[in-house]
Amino acid sequence: MIKEDNIWGKHPNVICNECLQPIGNKARFRCLTCDSYDLCENCEDKDINHAFGTHLFGKIRDSTNLDQKTMKRYKEKLSSMCMDSDCYAYRKSKNTDKCKENIDVSLPLIKDMLRLENKYRLSQEYLDEYGKSQTDNWKIAVTVAIQNRVVNECMERGKSTGFFDDLDSGIDFLRSAVGNFPEHVEELKECANYVRYTSFCVRGELRVGNVIDGNEFPIYDPYTLEKECLKDWLKDRPLLIFASSYT
Questions:
Q1: How many domains does the chain have?
Q2: Which of the pair, 4 or 156, is modelled with greater confidence?
Q3: Is residue 188 within 8 Å of residue 110, measured between CB atoms?
Q4: In whole angstroms, how far apart are CA 48 and each of 28, 111, 126, 140?
Q5: pTM of the full structure
Q6: Pairwise CA distance, residues 40 & 127, whole Å
Q7: Strand, helix or coil for residue 65
Q8: Do residue 105 and residue 190 come from a single domain?
């Protein structure tokens, strides 16, 4: 008979979010995006579709030896690695050379795709989806669904020939717009609203109630792109902050 004190094993007070059982002595899979989401080995093996498969997990063998500071540094490092690899300002597609060699075709194609993506992002259908996703932390899954739709429509219309022929390569092409065509970034800004401010975006984890330094937090005028500090806007006036991602 197992004593009650031993049911937690190597992961004290950690319960699998799917089967709702203590993880015990097996490996624990910790979501690196959510504040508190864990899977046991059995549920992780079932390919649980958490956040539509968009969140990464860390494997923890023994939580009793887990250093929270080390975990925090690991998450920060992971975030930095992702920033370098998938930010529109740096990313280039696998066929970037071919795009440049055939720019008369590839540039109009990427512009059409960005316009279509922008159209869907601002449609009521997907605005409703973004709204529902906020509390469950799967907002990125809505963006992925939009981008998948754009790529599939381009392939169905026969517009993608020579640059991508499946979903993965199409997504690679779409997300590499600025990286593939840096000389045409001003033109790309007119096709997609979210590209306009890419160079000012950094990864972060702001939450309600967080304290920010008004002396260092920049605010950019959306028309002139002139920079001011948040503290300059906190003088006897109400302030509404809109925050989003660059994806």
A1: 2
A2: 156
A3: yes
A4: 14, 36, 24, 17
A5: 0.49
A6: 34
A7: helix
A8: yes
The residue type found at 189 is K
Query: Largest alpha-carbon pair distance within the chain?
Result: 73
- Is the CB of residue 155 less than 8 Å from the CB of residue 94? no
In a domain, 130, yes or no: yes
- What pLDDT is attached to residue 85? 41
What residue type is assigned to position 61 of the chain?
A: R
- 132 and 44 housed in the same domain: no
Pairing label, strands 28-31, 218-220: unpaired
- Examine the domain organization and report whether 110 and 162 are in the same domain: yes
Dist. CA 106–CA 160, nearest whole Å: 9
**Which of 21, 50, 66 is the last residue in one of the domains?**
66
Alpha carbons 239 and 199: distance in angstroms, whole number: 24
In total, the chain counts a number of residues equal to 247
Asked if 75 contacts 60 with a C-beta cutoff of 8 angstroms, the reply is no
- pLDDT band of 197, cuts 50, 70, 90: very low
Q: Token pair 């089967």 is at which residue?
A: 19
3-state secondary structure of 230: helix
